[in-house]
């Protein structure tokens, strides 16, 4: 009786509300990461903490296409976020695993385990030098999902968006590709794929002067100039902000299928099919009728329509 009376006292309720509010509101001592999946497939974001004192409330989650989720981090947190793709739970063993970005915890949460390359990484050191947050996106360990980091409400000289927002899988050199059947799902870094000292920047290559941009890292650099593409990629800009939140967007420029696509595509198929039938009829049937037909003229109009695919 006494206890329930005590709990219901206005002052207790008030302090309970204060504590709750304090936990809910991102104050000066926390940062909010908003994970946004704009890919037209599911992404399973994961996080690895590298700071000793500050940890995250979650280290793995699922984001279906179009979904958003937030993770609140202590303001001294350091670590990385990445996206996992094609994740499944084995129906026999019950173990969770992903085709790319797998952390090997066998669960949705990575619980302190890092990603298996190739994986695009978004790296953060909150409240670092001068109280600024430092962040960068790296494809040094390869690429799997396009990522853009957007500071929200922050300020500072070098406080701008960074990332590797384009799909490098499409431009991946053949010997670095990771496939699921015929689909490229990841692009390995030259070091992990080819295991040569000059790509890994070890031995006599272990200095900014001797570790150079290779033809492989150049392909990454061209597509994503703001991202780190090889171990001593010091030419890349450093990004820092005094900010309270960051958006981490997977596939920022993914195209949505529009109504126009839905209606127009069958129409294009219909026209292409009729043009092909027209050519077959004119080339095979008309010569039989002993008429001369210049096929190059007939073939030409079909081309721009087929190029649409
Ligand atoms: C961890 O937290 C303790 C207590 O707040 C502090 O004294 C210590 O310096 C922190 N360690 C690091 C590495 O930040
Ligand atoms: C490969 O891709 C297919 C189609 O997207 C998917 O159903 C399948 O789960 C993927 N394979 C693996 C091992 O994830
Ligand atoms: C990228 O950011 C992480 C976290 O701030 C940092 O540890 C790492 O040194 C940075 N990488 C480069 C190449 O600056
Ligand atoms: C911003 O970046 C430039 C070039 O990387 C650097 O010289 C400058 O010190 C940076 N400013 C801050 C506030 O970090």
From TrEMBL:
<feature type="transmembrane region" description="Helical">
    <location>
        <begin position="263"/>
        <end position="285"/>
    </location>
</feature>
<comment type="similarity">
    <text>Belongs to the thaumatin family.</text>
</comment>
<dbReference type="InterPro" id="IPR037176">
    <property type="entry name" value="Osmotin/thaumatin-like_sf"/>
</dbReference>
<keyword id="KW-0472">Membrane</keyword>
<keyword id="KW-1133">Transmembrane helix</keyword>
<keyword id="KW-1015">Disulfide bond</keyword>
<dbReference type="GO" id="GO:0006952">
    <property type="term" value="P:defense response"/>
</dbReference>
<dbReference type="InterPro" id="IPR001938">
    <property type="entry name" value="Thaumatin"/>
</dbReference>
<dbReference type="GO" id="GO:0005576">
    <property type="term" value="C:extracellular region"/>
</dbReference>
<keyword id="KW-0732">Signal</keyword>
<feature type="signal peptide">
    <location>
        <begin position="1"/>
        <end position="30"/>
    </location>
</feature>
<protein>
    <submittedName>
        <fullName>Pathogenesis-related thaumatin family protein</fullName>
    </submittedName>
</protein>
<dbReference type="Pfam" id="PF00314">
    <property type="entry name" value="Thaumatin"/>
</dbReference>
<keyword id="KW-0964">Secreted</keyword>
<keyword id="KW-0812">Transmembrane</keyword>
């Amino acid at each position: 009786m006494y206890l329930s009376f005590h709990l219901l006292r206005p002052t207790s309720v008030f302090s309970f509300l204060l504590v709750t509010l304090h936990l809910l509101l991102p104050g000066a001592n926390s940062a909010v990461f908003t994970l946004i999946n704009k890919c037209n497939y599911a992404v399973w974001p994961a996080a690895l903490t590298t700071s000793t004192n500050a940890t995250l409330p979650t280290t793995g989650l699922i984001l279906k296409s179009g979904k958003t989720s937030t993770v609140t981090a202590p303001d001294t947190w350091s670590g990385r976020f990445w996206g996992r793709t094609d994740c499944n739970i084995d129906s026999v063993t019950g173990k969770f695993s992903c085709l790319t970005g797998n952390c090997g915890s066998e669960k949705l949460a990575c619980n302190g385990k890092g990603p298996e390359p190739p994986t695009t990484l978004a790296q953060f050191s909150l409240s670092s030098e001068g109280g600024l947050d430092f962040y960068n996106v790296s494809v040094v360990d390869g690429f799997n999902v396009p990522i853009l980091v957007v500071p929200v409400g922050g300020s500072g000289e070098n406080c701008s968006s960074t990332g590797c927002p384009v799909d490098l899988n499409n431009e991946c050199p053949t010997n670095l590709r990771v496939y699921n059947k015929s689909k490229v799902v990841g692009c390995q870094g030259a070091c992990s794929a080819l295991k040569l000292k000059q790509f890994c920047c070890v031995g006599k290559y272990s200095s900014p002067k001797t570790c150079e941009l290779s033809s492989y890292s150049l392909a990454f650099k061209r597509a994503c100039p703001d991202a780190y593409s090889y171990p001593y990629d010091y030419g890349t800009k450093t990004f820092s902000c005094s900010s309270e939140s960051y958006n981490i967007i997977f596939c920022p420029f993914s195209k949505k299928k529009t109504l126009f696509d839905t209606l127009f595509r069958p129409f294009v198929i219909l026209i292409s099919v009729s043009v092909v039938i027209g050519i077959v009829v004119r080339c095979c049937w008309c010569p039989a009728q002993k008429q001369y037909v210049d096929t190059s003229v007939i073939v030409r109009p079909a081309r721009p329509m087929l190029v649409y695919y």
